[in-house]
């Protein structure tokens, strides 16, 4: 079943407006608060049907979807539609962060990012060849993880003092034990097959104060996909993500020691809760010298990640410039101390 | 604007340094109080010392003394303090050789620029080269050799490795490489989450800890001697730091 939001006033298509956070009709300006929409589509379980073809409620045209598509726009009439089967039952997202950056702001943010590129070619920095800009809700799993850490090892404290003609170094050895409880909340892991994990990791952090209970109208006018991996499959990745956090926390608990060598470390990570969340991402396809470059932008904060083209001339320029200035400073210091300038 | 400010600061620094670094030359370089040299030899050495000294903006002093009541190093320091006060200078670049005929000892010292180019080990090296001539009584030859050896070192690089060209070049290239590498590495966006991003500080804490003292190990090393009488540099009574090398001949 296809959900399509038609304006009760004028009959035009409604879509989510990032500025007001409401379902908006662009023709007559009607705005509906999304919090009040019913959950009927999410709570009802649809019968498993094999239909892979969906028709636009508005014009009847066949919607171009693949097996992961949750929301899309009709390629004929442009109406934003949501496929109800794919947001209900086990596929129902529990939370969503709506877009706070609209298309115009996304272009501006991308241009600004390009302009700040230190090692990208000049003609790339103008950012005037955006080929495609797609607002997309990407499926993530967020985990509340409880970690119990028991670590023991040996620590040293070093004291140095002078007495007579000798310098004494006093090294005290301690047996150190720490039992730590750590809770990491809502650690996000990308659940889409199509998205590169490293790229998605760099898009963090999101501001969680804007996490909303999922409602289908948030998706109106954007693309959305369903998860390819369930929360069980991605739990190991969530655990590896917090591994370095845990280690640095352990380190902070033994900061009174000059050295600490852990000898026994037991880390037990348990999942307390997991949430299926849709996060807003702008995908930017940029055409530069016959090649397409893909960038991703955090649809909430505007942070851009991706691999831009690198200008060798600029890299050489920076390298030469920094080395030359450093050398000049060294020479000036030498000169100041009484040495020759050249 | 920022660039202009930087250039201005650089210019200011440079002019300050050029002004502050200049040290006036003293007219007499050879003080042959022990009477080891003939008048002709003194004139010849004066000319040479003046020539070389002007080239490097560093006075080359040669002092001979025959007095049973002096220590050669102390004498060198006092001599420097006295002469710098006479000229009313804060800073005076000097490479100095003192010969104590009574104890048959020699002391070489470098002050300021002299110290920069002639550290203890370089002065040791010079002393070893001129000692045979001193032992043989060829004082003029030894003093002339001293002036030329000072000239050699002053023509090269400062003694400190951090002030030498090639070393600075390597460091500059490494710094340039690291910073540029970071630019390239971060061009695609950086990870900006840290261990506090997802941490629930209300429930995360240490449940139990134990710090059991086991033992203490004490090691001792001899303090590096700073003012050993066997040689090396020091600080004069007037507060001027210098390098030095002391030996018998």
UniProtKB/TrEMBL annotation, chain B:
Extract the Pfam families matched here.
TPM_phosphatase
What sequence ranges are listed for the domain TPM?
30-147
Keyword Nucleotidyltransferase among UniProt keywords:
no
Q: Residues annotated as region Disordered? A: 220-249
So which residues are the signal peptide here?
Answer: 1-23
Q: Does the keyword Electron transport apply?
A: no
What are the protein's UniProt keywords?
Membrane, Signal, Transmembrane, Transmembrane helix
Q: What is this protein called?
A: TPM domain-containing protein
Q: Which organism is it from?
A: Caldibacillus thermoamylovorans
Q: What lineage is this protein's organism placed in?
A: Bacteria, Bacillati, Bacillota, Bacilli, Bacillales
């Amino acid at each position: 079943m296809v959900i399509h939001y038609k304006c009760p006033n004028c009959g035009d298509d409604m879509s989510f407006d990032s500025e007001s956070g409401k379902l908006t009709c662009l023709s007559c300006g009607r705005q509906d608060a999304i919090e009040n929409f019913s959950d009927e589509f999410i709570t009802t379980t649809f019968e498993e049907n094999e239909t892979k073809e969906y028709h636009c409620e508005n014009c009847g045209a066949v919607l171009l979807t693949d097996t992961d598509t949750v929301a899309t726009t009709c390629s004929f009439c442009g109406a934003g539609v949501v496929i109800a089967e794919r947001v209900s039952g086990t596929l129902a997202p529990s939370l969503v962060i709506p877009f706070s950056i609209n298309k115009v702001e996304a272009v501006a943010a991308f241009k600004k990012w390009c302009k700040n590129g230190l090692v990208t070619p000049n003609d790339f920095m103008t950012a005037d060849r955006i080929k495609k800009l797609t607002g997309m809700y990407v499926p993530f799993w967020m985990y509340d993880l409880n970690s119990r850490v028991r670590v023991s090892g040996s620590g040293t404290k070093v004291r140095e003092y002078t007495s007579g003609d000798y310098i004494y170094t006093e090294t005290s050895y301690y047996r150190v034990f720490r039992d730590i409880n750590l809770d990491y909340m809502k650690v996000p892991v990308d659940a889409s097959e199509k998205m590169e994990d490293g790229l998605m990791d760099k898009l963090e952090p999101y501001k969680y104060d804007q996490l909303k209970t999922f409602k289908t109208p948030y998706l109106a006018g954007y693309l959305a996909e369903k998860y390819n991996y369930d929360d069980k499959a991605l739990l190991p990745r969530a655990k590896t993500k917090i591994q370095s956090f845990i280690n640095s926390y352990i380190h902070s608990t033994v900061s009174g020691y000059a050295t600490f060598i852990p000898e026994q470390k037991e880390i037990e990570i348990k999942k307390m809760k997991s949430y299926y969340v849709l996060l807003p991402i702008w995908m930017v396809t940029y055409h530069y010298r016959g090649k397409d470059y893909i960038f991703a932008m955090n649809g909430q904060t505007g942070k851009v990640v991706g691999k831009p083209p690198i200008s060798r001339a600029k890299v050489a320029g920076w390298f030469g410039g920094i080395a030359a200035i450093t050398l000049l400073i060294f020479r000036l210091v030498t000169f100041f101390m009484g040495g020759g300038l050249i | 604007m920022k660039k202009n400010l930087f250039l201005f600061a650089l210019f200011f620094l440079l002019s300050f340094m050029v002004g502050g670094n200049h040290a006036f030359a003293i007219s007499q370089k050879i003080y042959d109080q022990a009477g080891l040299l003939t008048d002709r030899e003194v004139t010849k050495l004066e000319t040479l010392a003046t020539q070389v000294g002007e080239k490097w903006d560093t006075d080359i002093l040669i002092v001979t003394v025959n007095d049973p009541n002096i220590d050669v190093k102390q004498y060198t320091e006092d001599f420097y303090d006295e002469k710098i006060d006479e000229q009313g200078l804060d800073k005076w670049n000097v490479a100095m050789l003192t010969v104590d005929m009574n104890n048959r000892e020699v002391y070489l010292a470098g002050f300021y620029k002299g110290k920069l180019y002639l550290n203890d080990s370089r002065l040791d090296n010079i002393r070893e080269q001129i000692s045979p001539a001193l032992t043989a009584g060829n004082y003029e030859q030894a003093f002339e050799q001293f002036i030329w050896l000072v000239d050699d070192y002053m023509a090269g690089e400062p003694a400190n490795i951090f002030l030498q060209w090639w070393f600075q070049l390597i460091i500059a290239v490494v710094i340039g490489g690291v910073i540029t590498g970071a630019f390239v590495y971060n061009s695609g966006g950086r990870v900006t989450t840290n261990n506090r991003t997802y941490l629930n500080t209300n429930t995360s804490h240490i449940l139990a800890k134990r710090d059991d003292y086991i033992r203490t190990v004490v090691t001792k090393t001899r303090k590096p001697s700073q003012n050993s009488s066997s040689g090396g540099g020091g600080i004069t009574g007037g507060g001027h730091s210098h390098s030095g090398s002391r030996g018998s001949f």
